[in-house]
């Protein structure tokens, strides 16, 4: 049986490792960060300011450890144009991850007020699909820090399955380059060690993947997107919105702009002159499908907001202000955070750097993270990454 190295243990890497190990493939899963409990994941953020503040983590489980548990299908139509039909894989992932909307008991006062206000303004509102077990979830507002109750699906679940099937997990090991001979991948190198295999799957994320590819001579790292977002909020005394399940509703302005209930600690500081306390802040995330205006290079990450990005953020922010005013927020207290990016991707896009089987021009070298997405999803991409990785696992398991 062949040997496969998977680099990165987030949504893509963990899924490929699980799929292959179940088929009897010898899998080595290599992760830059350490094993940590979900409730400690916030200690492993590796944020950087690249024009927008880029949010990412380095630990076993990757960014799945600090997501809000949102599970929506994204990029489905665009991927079909490249011959990638994920219908079967989406269905499998949704069943395995327990995707569904949370019961009414898990909707707090602030979220309900936002939903009612949006509906009164004639705006489409729906419950956000989540990969959260409501029986374990005790709403506390800490999804993005790492779930203290372990109620949210993370790729740790797939990693545990993979380990039971024989996958070897190597933590605290950063892969720096590929071992290539005569146009074929033979393994990977870290700073201390070499690992050899018949095939390699890269999934360390849309910043590190293109850097590894570029060191191997591939033209990766362009077309960088991040799903730019801001959080608009204001004061609603005693609402305790900070303790609610975050992003529990989806307000769709257009294919390019979505809004979701979201608390940001940044707004507490911005509203301190109004005497605001954490429990008094209510907010809406405004997330856009940003243009692929960024670049990843060896020593730099560049991402700027285009004129169109700024216009979309302004449009969404105006709507957020209208909804929050309808909720009862004093318009004089409305503030916005700086622009941030939570979903980096596009830097090894299908149709450009990888083919429809997610293989590069180097034989045996594949990519299975958000790098392969051909456009910004404009919504949380975890479910799509899992579906793509499932498809890749099936493909590699047949060969």
Automatic annotation (TrEMBL):
Residues 128-157 form the 4Fe-4S ferredoxin-type domain. One of its GO terms (molecular function) is flavin adenine dinucleotide binding. InterPro entries: 4Fe4S_Fe-S-bd (IPR017896), FAD/NAD-bd_sf (IPR036188), GMC_OxRdtase_N (IPR000172), GMC_OxRtase_C (IPR007867). The keyword Secreted does not apply. It comes from the Archaea. The keyword Oxidoreductase applies. SUPFAM superfamilies: FAD/NAD(P)-binding domain (SSF51905). Keywords: FAD, Flavoprotein, Oxidoreductase. Belongs to the GMC oxidoreductase family. This is 4Fe-4S ferredoxin-type domain-containing protein. It comes from Methanobacterium congolense. The lineage of its organism: Archaea, Methanobacteriati, Methanobacteriota, Methanomada group, Methanobacteria.
